[in-house]
Structures are given as C-alpha cells and as structure tokens.
Task: inverse folding
C-alpha cells in the first residue's frame, strides 16, 4: 500500500531556562522543547523525515529504508513513525549485530534490521551502495543517514516558526540568536536558511571540527542559493563524538537538577556546556536573549547510563 504523508502537526513548547550562570551573566535563554514534541517521534527528526515521506509518497513507495548506528535517534524516530502511521521500515546498521536498548526498540516497533559490519557501512557514500538494497526492497524509499539533505534542512523552517509563534507569551519581542547542537549540520543549515540573516545561529559541534559539518553547511546553503554567513560553528565535542568525561557527567547532573531540563550526553548536554563556556567568557552582552533548541535524543541516554554512573563515583 502506497505510503501517505500523515496529517500530523505536533507542537513543542518554548520554555524559559533557569540557571545560575545565565542569571549571573544577564543572559536569558528559552528552550524549544522538541524533546516534548511526541514521546517517540521527537527532536529534530520529524521535521527531517517529512520531506522523505513526501518523496516516498510521490514515488509510490510503501515505506522507508535508512541507515544508522546501534543507538541512532534517527532510526528510532523512523521506526516509531512507521509503527504509528502503519508503513514498513528497514534499518541498515553500522557494525556487527548487537542488542542495545535502541535496537530492541527498533525491532519491537517493527523495523527490519540488517547489520552491515563497519566496512560495509563505510561504503554508504559510494555510488551503487543503494542498488542491491533497492533491488531487494524495491517498494521502499531510501533515506540517507540521519535524514540529511536540502529538503530535510528546508523542512526545519517549521522549527523557527514554532519558536517565533511562542515569543509573546514569554514577553519577548525578539531574540538575538539560536543555539543548537550540530551533528551533520542539516538542522543548523535549516535554521540559517529560515532566518536568512535575521538572527545568527550558533552551532555547537557534537563531532570534532574538520569532520565534514563545515562543508555540509556551506554546500546546503549554496544548493539553496543562499550566501554563506549568518552562523558560526564552535567545537563542543570535547575531543570526540559521543565521548563522555567526568566534567560533562557532572555538568549534566547539575544542570538537570537546577533547571529540570532533561539532557543527553551526545548532543544537548554538550551544546549547553559549550553555551556556558561562551556565556562565562562574556561572549554575549547582558540582556541578550537566545533560543536554545532541544533536539531530543533522550532515548539514547540509556546507552550512557552505566558510564554516567561510573563517572559519578568520587
Ligand atoms: C538528538 C540529536 N540532536 C542533534 C542532532 C544533530 O542534528 P543534525 O544532524 O541535523 O546536525 C542529532 C542528529 O544528528 C540528534 O540525534
């Protein structure tokens, strides 16, 4: 049965963030809680999936096939969408077969999994990678890792509208910029495109600099015909993607306890810690108002629970 794009328009609240180091610096932050968009199809994922669903419908496909790691937030949201809206999903996974809380969920939500090994997964950008999968699953529409691409970035304009529509109840007439985690840079590029220079976008890199985010953003803006600019990228990776150290673990515990905002160590906590560094260094003038994008990913916290506990031991 051909997939139909569901008429589903979930909303996420914009909430003030209360933290001592923000108050000390006179910087105000409101968080767009995309983690609260939906219990399962949450974070930036729904926005990035929508154009792929539209492309699948246009192609007459029944469902989607995509790629990710054993803790992938993207595959998790895709599997949840497949279950919720009754379309088939297939996940191509990095590495050797393993059971993680995420892969257990993927299977429970009806996603069919194939493990590609590490070498097989590295080949995902090569021409011809998709051919055997398209032969095997001719009724499924392929989606690049993480749901990347210009249509996905452009779909993130809805995030900007969602936040702007909630400024008045906060008593904010305007804001001076966005702050968010960047993994591939797709969401960041989407905000930059939507803002078109009206408000700067600060991207906290979850991966070390030089691993492709810089060029992805430049290429997406160029493909959209927009001049580069209106954003900056800063290293928030703490030396490696998904690397969790004692300072980060302590920061997560403190920030969550003080603000009530749930964080995960790979994206949102690193982004918030990088913001603290900049705020404490005086980067933002007193009176600055920022929108922090909570990009979700809380399902991935389960993979780090043991390490968090280890680091918490004095
Ligand atoms: C929870 C979470 N936040 C942020 C990101 C980064 O988004 P993007 O890849 O669009 O930069 C991702 C995925 O990569 C993610 O899963």
Result:
């Amino acid at each position: 049965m051909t997939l139909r794009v569901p008429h589903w328009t979930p909303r996420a609240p914009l909430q003030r963030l209360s933290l001592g180091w923000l108050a000390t610096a006179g910087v105000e932050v409101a968080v767009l809680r995309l983690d609260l968009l939906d219990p399962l199809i949450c974070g930036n994922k729904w926005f990035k999936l929508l154009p792929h669903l539209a492309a699948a419908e246009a192609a007459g496909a029944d469902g989607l096939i995509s790629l990710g790691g054993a803790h992938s937030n993207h595959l998790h949201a895709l599997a949840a969408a497949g279950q919720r809206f009754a379309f088939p999903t297939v996940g191509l996974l990095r590495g050797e077969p393993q059971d993680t809380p995420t892969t257990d969920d993927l299977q429970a939500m009806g996603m069919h999994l194939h493990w590609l090994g590490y070498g097989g997964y590295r080949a995902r950008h090569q021409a011809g990678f998709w051919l055997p999968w398209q032969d095997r699953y001719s009724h499924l529409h392929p989606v690049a890792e993480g749901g990347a691409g210009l249509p996905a970035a452009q779909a993130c304009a809805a995030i900007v509208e969602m936040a702007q529509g909630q400024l008045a109840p906060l008593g904010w007439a305007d804001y001076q910029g966005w702050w968010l985690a960047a993994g591939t840079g797709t969401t960041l590029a989407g905000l930059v495109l939507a803002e078109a220079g009206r408000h700067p976008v600060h991207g906290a890199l979850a991966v070390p600099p030089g691993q492709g985010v810089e060029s992805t953003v430049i290429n997406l803006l160029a493909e959209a015909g927009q001049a580069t600019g209106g954003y900056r990228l800063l290293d928030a990776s703490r030396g490696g993607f998904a690397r969790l150290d004692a300072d980060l673990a302590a920061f997560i515990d403190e920030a969550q306890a003080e603000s009530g905002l749930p964080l995960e160590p790979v994206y949102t906590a690193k982004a918030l810690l990088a913001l603290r560094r900049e705020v404490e260094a005086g980067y933002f003038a007193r009176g600055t108002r920022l929108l922090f994008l909570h990009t979700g990913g809380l399902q991935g916290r389960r993979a780090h629970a043991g390490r968090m506990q280890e680091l918490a031991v004095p």
